[in-house]
Amino acid sequence: MARIVDINTGTELHDADAVRPGSLKAWFLAARPKTLSGAAVPVMLGTAHAVREAGSEVLFTSPAVLLCFLFAFIMQIDANFVNDYYDCLKGRDNEERLGPLRACQQGWVTMKAMRYAIAVTTLLACLVGLPLAYYGGVEMVAVGAACVIFCFLYTTCLASLGMGDVLVLLFFGIVPVCCTYYVAVPEALRTLNHIPWLSGIACGLVVDTLLIVNNYRDIDNDAASGKKTLAVFIGREKMEWLYLCLPTAALVLMLLQLGWDNSNIIVCFIVYFLYIQTWNRMRSIGRGKALNKVLGMTARNIFLFGILLSALVIFAQNG
């Protein structure tokens, strides 16, 4: 029989505040709404570059930007459902898990219901993304297809081969930043020289810090279950340093893209200072469920990176 548990402590409950199987709250938690900021930030940054290039009218003259946001959100939820289902199927989500509780493993959502949910979100993402071909050409169909394919490949095999970080760089950085810019800017203004490649790489590196915390926290359980993440390959200490190196590289790339003006340096330093604080917290905790606090701090850092750097990109238009 499915357990009704407290989402924070994992202890069994029987009152109205518990997560009840099949409830709206159960599906809300399965969608992992806190991860949506990671989907929003690259689209936000790509939109900022489009505004810088073509003016704020790109936000109002076509629905391309809105479609990019919707596609990113739906694909993120789809990826979360796929991850929940297959990790439960393969026994990776077990009683030793340190991260937030998962819907299938806890019995909040049945495996059959999750399969239907995966089918629905995948189809919905395709329907939302297909009109982007009108704005960016048929190559957008290939991009969308790649997003769907790698959404499944990530959990089913590539994450177990230490490739998760590469996929984050591509699909939470280069692809959404550059493609959002591409479909939002009028065709007459598009040039390869203006596509924000550096911002795309920087965004992917920053978003990857969320995956680093996840894999750092779960290193022992992943190793025991045969999941060969990057953390399992290189070890705990190197992962700590990688966590700090990625935002360092990302902010340098943003400064190379925007210029080394004082205002740019100050904004980047603010983000970097937050990452140093989070890094110190991560090292001081070291192991255990308390690392979920570092996960929350990292999500905050990523969102602030998106807000502040997007504003900086737009401001540079008038600078």
Task: Please explain how this structure is put together.
The chain is an all-alpha fold and 319 residues long. The protein contains 14 helices and no strands. The protein has helices spanning 24-30, 36-54, 64-89, 103-106, 111-129, 132-136, 139-156, 164-184, 197-217, 219-225, 230-234, 236-258, 262-285, 291-318. Helix 13 runs antiparallel to helix 14. The chain is globular. The chain starts with 23 loop residues before the first helix and ends with a helix. The model is unreliable at 1-16 (pLDDT under 50).
Name the shape in a single word: globular
Low-confidence stretches: 1-16
CA-atom Rg in angstroms: 20 Å
Strand % is under 5%
The number of helical segments is 14
Amino- and carboxy-terminal Cα gap: 62 Å
Average pLDDT works out at: 87
User: Could you state the order of secondary-structure elements as H and E?
Assistant: HHHHHHHHHHHHHH
* Overall number of strands: 0
User: Helix/strand-derived class?
Assistant: mainly alpha
**Share in helix:** over 70%
Pick out its properties:
319 residues; mainly alpha; 14 helices; globular
